[in-house]
Amino acid sequence: MNILYLSLERNIELENKHKVMYLDYTSRKDKLRGDFPQKIYKQILEFKPDVLIEREFNDGLSKYVDILSFVKKELPLCKRSVWLIDTHVQLQWHLDYSPLFDYIFVAISKYRPIIASNLRTMGSSSQVFWLPLCYPCRRDKIKRNKSRVPFDIVFVGRWGEWFGRRNELIKALTKKYKDRFFPITDYANMEDYIRQGVISFNCSYADDMNFRVFETMANGVELVTNDVPDLHLIEGLAERINIYKTDKELFKLCDKILAGKRENDVIRSQIWIQNHHCTIHRHKEMLKMMREGEQVKY
Q1: Quick one: what percent of the chain has pLDDT higher than 90?
Q2: Which helix (H) or strand (E) holds 95?
Q3: Count of alpha carbons within 13 Å of 262, Cβ hemisphere only?
Q4: Can you point out the beta strands (E) in 34-121?
Q5: Per-residue pLDDT reduced to its tens digit, 30-61
Q6: Residue 13 to residues 10, 69, 277: CA-CA distances in angstroms?
């Protein structure tokens, strides 16, 4: 199968079974000058994709309306699909954008019926499925010496007044655990920082199951996270993590984990994520739903 992949990152796993052509528009303003678009269109026609996959990001760069319109017109048999990651901050754009695709995969389950209803209203026959986030790559089992881990609790992400509940909890953790709690904004080195703690703290401000859930588990670290609906839609996930609803429950879980030893359970969860919830698994599920037209179970 020939797959045209529109994304800001490469997904090498696809190349094991399929022929993949990538289009990286990290600098669209420069690349759209001169005869660049025509060269791209010619390459697409020569490649003859069977499937188009767009991996959407909330960055203002990964917008491929021109490419989609060209493929729809010139290659009508090519199945067009998109994985919508950030619907919580781009809902209107996703509602307007989704009719360009035959298959829409939504990372946050509660937005699936909203997008599907909008498509029906517009007279579109596009199909909408839930495709949750995952661990972006597969790694060998990571062994850690807990006695040499510098922090008890780590958080990698953004916070501030705009993040509401998350910001309040980070302040509370800092007050209680002081320098034993290490919050940092550095997504480029996220895994390295997560491994520097016994616990990785998570608080989704969008009521979603974010990347941090899978990053933490796949790196052999205890996850302590707030309760969101999607955590209970993947069989076996909620039982492998630590879920809190209140500040009191958060502190109680952290103290319990720091006082105990669950290394074997953590390693088993790490292997479980790597065996079932990596990018390669999501791509297989995506292609299966496109082929069979039914929502897969996780």
Answers
A1: 62
A2: helix 87-97
A3: 21
A4: 51-55, 79-84, 103-106
A5: 555 555 678 888 999 999 999 999 987 655 55
A6: 9, 27, 13
What DSSP element (H or E) covers 51?
strand 51-55
Neighbours of 16 (CB within 10 A): 8
User: Quick count: other Cβ atoms within 10 Å of Cβ 73?
Assistant: 8
Residue 70 burial class via C-beta count within 10 angstroms: exposed 0-12, middle 13-18, buried 19 and up: middle
Contact by Cβ (8 Å): 131, 107:
yes
CATH homologous superfamily, domain 146-276: Glycogen Phosphorylase B; (3.40.50.2000)
Quick check: 163 and 210 in contact, CB under 8 A?
no
Dist. CA 142–CA 215, nearest whole Å: 13
Alpha helices in 150-295 (DSSP H): 165-177, 190-194, 211-218, 247-259, 263-276, 279-292
CATH fold match for the domains 2-133+278-292 and 146-276: yes
One-letter amino acid identity for 23? L
Residue ranges per domain, the chain? 2-133+278-292, 146-276
- Residue found under tokens 């297989």: 284
Nearest to 100 by CA among 87, 89, 115, 110: 115
Instruction: Mark residue 114 as left, alpha or beta (left: phi above 0; alpha: psi -120 to 50; beta: remaining).
Output: alpha
pLDDT tens digit string along 198-245? 999 999 978 889 989 999 999 889 999 999 999 999 999 999 999 999
Tokens of 147: 């006695």
Convert 202-233 to b/e letters by CB count within 10 Å (16 or more is b).
bbbbeebbbbbbbbbbbbbbbbbbbebebbee
Among 243, 293, 291, 286, smallest CA distance to 82 is for 286
> In CATH terms, is domain 2-133+278-292 a member of 1.20.58?
no
DSSP 8-state assignment for residue 164 = T
